[in-house]
Specification:
Helices cover about 70% and strands about 0% of the residues. The protein is mostly helical. The chain is globular and about 55 Å long.
């Protein structure tokens, strides 16, 4: 039986096709869950709003009582896990891909840029569509502007971290280094979501929706890469595969 050529289009029996199908399922389920949250927010569903309010009030009181911890959260959310910092981390992969001699890496660099743009447009579009007010406090510990839903910090962190992990895996990173990278990514995604609610600039449902949409964007983008991308590998000198 002939094995699929690495440079051939993806077919139904290709492992890449199966991976792409699984990723599309993940993207679809996350998108559906985010859409359900959007509908509940738009309809101002009482139980969800009550949960959001309870969590926000509890964390806001804690933030007011712990100025040092609050300042640490502000540094993390404004500098370490800021959306522009996260985007820059992903953009750093682009020059490496463009300079790589590995087949397909230049197309992957363009794919990274397109995914970043698509994620940002989707995020801002949904914010404009829902136009959800942010929490309001008489004594705020931080401030933020524009609409609340979804959290841009949470969404950007989620899709950037997933894409970086996939790029690392694609580049051959394995073992302890990959596990360390996954741990850093998980802490970053969870941590930035916590900071947004702790600082009183987002509701819990904003953050959850951001996480879901971020995973949906990343999974869909990787699935598209599997489906339409072609891998260029160095052929043996005798011309046989």
């Amino acid at each position: 039986m002939r094995t699929p050529s690495p440079t051939a289009p993806v077919t139904a029996g290709d492992p890449r096709s199966r991976r792409a199908a699984g990723l599309l399922w993940v993207a679809g389920l996350c998108a559906l869950a985010a859409a359900a949250l959007l509908v509940l927010v738009a309809l101002e569903w009482g139980p969800l709003l009550a949960l959001d309010r309870t969590v926000a009030v509890g964390l806001h009181e804690s933030a007011r009582a712990s100025p040092d911890i609050t300042q640490a959260n502000r540094v993390l959310t404004d500098w370490v896990w800021d959306p522009w910092t996260m985007r820059l981390a992903l953009l750093l992969a682009v020059p490496a891909l463009l300079l790589s001699r590995r087949g397909g890496d230049r197309a992957t660099a363009l794919w990274v840029l397109a995914t970043l743009l698509a994620g940002s447009v989707l995020q801002q579009g949904i914010k404009a569509l829902v136009d959800r007010p942010r929490p309001r406090w008489r004594d705020p510990v931080d401030s933020a502007h524009y609409a609340a839903f979804p959290s841009g910090h949470a969404m950007t962190a989620a899709f950037v971290c997933v894409l970086l992990l996939w790029l690392a895996h694609r580049a051959g990173v394995r073992g302890a280094l990959m596990r360390a990278a996954a741990a850093v990514a998980a802490v970053s995604v969870a941590g930035v979501g916590f900071t947004r609610v702790y600082l009183g600039v987002h509701w819990l449902s904003d953050v959850v929706a951001g996480w879901l949409l971020g995973v949906a964007v990343a999974s869909g983008a990787i699935a598209a890469h599997h489906w339409y991308g072609r891998r260029n590998v160095r052929k043996p000198l005798n011309g046989r595969g």
